[in-house]
Specification:
This protein is an alpha/beta fold. It has 15 helices and 16 strands. The strands form 4 sheets. It has a 7-stranded mixed beta sheet, sandwiched between helices. Strands 5-15-16-14-13 form a 5-stranded mixed beta sheet. The longest helix has 26 residues, at 364-389.
């Protein structure tokens, strides 16, 4: 969605804006304005996009134009809309807002929050030791220009060795170091997907992947995940029927559901992709984080015989998001083509960061083992708090990764996220993980905060969930008799 949003498009995004529990305490125009602000806050409505004319939106929502006029006026007063007579109205943000690490827009004076919008851990204690060691290694690189489009050889070898240890023989020539996994995805899309190309994704899926695909104006089709994961016949049928140019999949502890794709389906997906000419982009962001002794299936690339599988991964989830190190594993010719594309974007990743990554990977056994123990404890604390405070929510216990995907007791995800913000909890509502405003019955809950913070956050969420119901009941009165 770029440039302009039509009335019917905005109506789909707004969903049940005037019928959500708790909204009856405000006039309809205030509820409409508040929902538009919520769409801006969670990234579903871009900045700088032209909103539909008042009459067009009123017709799409089947409400009076007066209500839309009043809502637009309130949005202008709060700094979320700029209007010019005869030219229309564009979305914007007040001057005291900034971009948070979640991708959400938050005030500059934002108080301390329990942030459940970010599915990432704080840095491990070994990071400082790795950083000191990296500075000692740095002098041998200072005599050169410092540009390494595919990455320094030590890091590419370390990543290749990690793939080999998982059963997928890999050489350093098949690895390209990037500035994070999102950067890896962006480069792959630039290389492999022409603007307007067709892509198959899971639903729900990683919202920043959807944003990257929107940037390529991709035509997206979805495979809906069931409560227990992928439906093999439906997934393979989607590949054969739509024959997309790319398919973006997260087989290891899928984000946000936590599902793990079985080995048999991995093999069948690769075979089907080859048969229809589809390239598979496999996001392995969570592959290092199995919990409860879960045994991982072979990497999807094990079944690839025709260079149809491009794997992406990085350091953000098992190590630290502030270390912007990711990678692409592909055939050596594909890596060289990616490097040629990359030169027009950012030249290379920082050498010092790559050296830090080399030292962290050398200590991977210790660091990752500690992370798994930590995550298991925090996951169980979150599950226990949800069972106690929100027993009507349904959650499948993930076998790894860092997130729970909760089915709520009503289609209130966006409303709940806005209410939770008021009590110091930041949430990523379900619609961020789907298309066109779907997923209102779902909420992603990462267990990356300390256990005590997770319990406190659930307590606050439960309180505002109760308030939504309590204030949402409409009281009907008998009509007055006029005699």
């Amino acid at each position: 969605m770029t440039g302009q949003v039509r009335g019917v498009q905005l109506a789909r995004l707004l969903g049940q804006w005037h019928a959500l529990p708790g909204r009856r305490r405000s006039p309809d125009y205030a509820a409409l304005a508040g929902t538009v602000r919520g769409l801006l806050a969670d990234g579903r409505l871009p900045l700088g996009v032209r909103l539909p004319a008042e009459r067009e939106l009123a017709e799409a929502l089947r409400i009076s134009r007066t209500t839309v006029t009043a809502a637009y006026r309130q949005l202008r007063e709060t700094g979320h809309l700029a209007s010019r007579r005869g030219a229309g109205s564009w979305t914007m943000l007040p001057g005291n807002h900034r971009v948070a690490s979640t991708g959400l827009w938050t005030p500059l004076d934002d108080r301390e929050m329990l942030d459940l919008g970010v599915a990432a851990l704080a840095a491990p204690p070994q990071l400082l030791t790795a950083a000191r060691a990296a500075t000692e290694d740095l002098p041998r690189y200072l005599g050169g220009a410092g540009y390494h489009p595919t990455g320094i050889i030590e890091l590419r070898e370390a990543v290749a060795d990690a793939y080999a240890a998982r059963g997928l023989p890999t050489s350093a020539d098949q690895i390209m170091v990037t500035s994070g996994t999102q950067h890896a995805l962006d480069l792959v899309l630039r290389l492999a997907l022409a603007p307007g190309g067709s892509v198959l994704v899971e639903s729900p899926t990683y919202p920043n992947a959807l944003a990257a695909l929107a940037g390529r104006r991709a035509r997206i089709t979805t495979h809906g995940l069931a409560a227990d994961g992928w439906e093999p016949d439906l997934l393979l049928g989607s590949l054969r029927q739509t024959r997309p140019k790319l398919a973006y999949l997260i087989p290891e502890f899928q984000n946000p559901t936590g599902h793990l794709m079985p080995a048999e389906l991995r093999e069948r997906v690769v075979a089907a992709a080859h048969a229809v000419g589809t390239d598979l982009v496999i996001d392995e962001s969570f592959v290092d984080l199995p919990l409860d002794g879960t045994e991982l299936p072979p990497p999807v690339g094990v079944y690839d015989r025709h260079s149809r599988v491009i794997s992406i991964g990085g350091m953000s989830k098992p190590y630290w998001g502030g270390l912007r190190i990711g990678w692409v594993r592909a055939s050596a010719p594909q890596v060289q083509r990616l490097a040629a594309v990359r030169v027009g974007v950012d030249m290379a990743s920082p050498v010092l960061d790559q050296l830090v990554a080399v030292h962290l990977l050398a200590d991977a056994d210790t660091i990752v083992a500690e992370r798994r123990v930590q995550l298991a404890v925090q996951r169980d604390a979150l599950l226990g708090a949800l069972a106690q405070r929100l027993p009507d929510w349904r959650v499948t216990v993930p076998r790894g990764g860092v997130t729970l995907w909760a089915e709520l007791d009503g289609p209130v995800s966006s409303a709940l996220a806005r209410a939770a913000e008021e009590v110091g909890v930041r949430l990523a509502p379900g619609p961020r993980f789907g298309l066109d405003g779907t997923m209102e019955r779902f909420l992603r809950l990462p267990f990356t905060l300390p256990a005590a913070d997770l319990v406190e956050a659930v307590g606050r969420i439960a309180a505002v969930r109760y308030d939504l119901d309590r204030t949402g009941r409409q009281r009907w009165r008998e009509p007055a008799v006029i005699a």
